[in-house]
């Protein structure tokens, strides 16, 4: 069972409770990240965990290009494949699956912003938040493409408001 699924003090999960305690005490990595400029929105998105409800204003489908997904695949191979595997579900270091039913269950009810924010705040596990915003957008595009979302005519940008309008819900 993942740490997000386990019950914590307030039903958020053990990891979320631990991070919240660190933020509220002004100690720990989340407080440092707030001071380092990751911003409260990214930290709060992370505290919410994967699959947390996110308001989707317009419900437009995700927008990314095939070329962007290919750049994301190259970044995935470099930064993510050791933990998550070549098939996105067979990593040698136990990273969570990033495809199929697991992806749909954790991300299918939210927005692209929720997925992007989570990746940016938590990955790569050994240096979270250290990639460029565009690389995180490319990685997000790759994950979307590998989960059956079709490419569109425009690239996915790191713009939070634009991403928030993009729904991962399927009709």
SSE order in H/E notation? HHHHHHHHH
Classify the beta-strand content into a percent band: under 5%
Fourth-tier CATH superfamily name of the domain at 66-165: Cytochrome c-like domain
By CATH reckoning, the class of the domain at 66-165 would read: Mainly Alpha
Return the structural class.
Answer: mainly alpha
Describe, in plain words, how this protein is organized in 3D.
The protein is mainly α. The chain has a domain at 66-165: Cytochrome c-like domain (Cytochrome Bc1 Complex, Chain D, domain 2, Orthogonal Bundle). The protein is 51% helix and 0% strand. The chain has nine helices and no strands. The protein has helices at residues 14-25, 28-36, 40-48, 66-79, 81-84, 100-107, 112-122, 133-146, 160-165. Helix 3 (40-48) packs across helix 7. The longest helix has 14 residues, at 66-79.
Topology:
Blueprint lengths: L13 H12 L2 H9 L3 H9 L17 H14 L1 H4 L15 H8 L4 H11 L10 H14 L13 H6 L6
Helix pairs in contact: 1-2, 3-7, 4-8, 7-8
List keywords for this structure.
171 residues, 9 helices
Summarize the model shown.
The protein has 171 residues and is mostly helical. The protein has helices at residues 14-25, 28-36, 40-48, 66-79, 81-84, 100-107, 112-122, 133-146, 160-165.
